[in-house]
Amino acid sequence: MSARPGDPPEDPPRESPCTCTALRRAARAATAAYDAALAPVGLRVTQFAILRILARLGPLPVSRLAEEAALDRSTMGRNLDPLERRGLVALAPDPRDGRARVAALTGAGEAAIAAALPHWRAVEARLGARLAPGALAALVAALPAQP
């Protein structure tokens, strides 16, 4: 059916939301919630995740730590700098490759994790309660681990 002169324009057909945009919005909202929850201990969620990786796996070359955290090497460096300045992480030359550095959790880093865990657990519970049972697991299973 064609429009006649004077008829109001038709609304364009509605498209479903862009999956990428929706996921990016959700990721930004989740990051903001975790960052706000961890603010009392002076950590951002990415920094907290780095500390937890080091606690779980022990000292790691920075490139491997970046892989484990799903960050590129330069972003990892920007996240490690404040952690090293605060004494939460120690960086040393890799004994196997003098060009590389190894990151290790310090005692202060272990204490920071302990201080942050109650805040992290609270936001985990709050966000988890807003998701349908199994929704996060289904999303993780549906998306590739690496692009």
Automatic annotation (TrEMBL):
Domain HTH marR-type: from-to ranges: 16-147
One Gene Ontology MF term: DNA-binding transcription factor activity
Keyword field: DNA-binding, Transcription, Transcription regulation
GO biological process: response to stress
Superkingdom as given in the UniProt entry: Bacteria
CDD domains: HTH_ARSR
PROSITE patterns for this protein: HTH_MARR_1 (PS01117), HTH_MARR_2 (PS50995)
Pfam families: MarR
InterPro entries found in the cross-reference section: ArsR-like_HTH (IPR011991), HTH_MarR-typ (IPR000835), MarR/SlyA-like (IPR039422), Tscrpt_reg_MarR-type_CS (IPR023187), WH-like_DNA-bd_sf (IPR036388), WH_DNA-bd_sf (IPR036390)
Name of the molecule in the record: HTH marR-type domain-containing protein
Organism in which the protein naturally occurs: Methylobacterium hispanicum
Source organism phylogeny: Bacteria, Pseudomonadati, Pseudomonadota, Alphaproteobacteria, Hyphomicrobiales
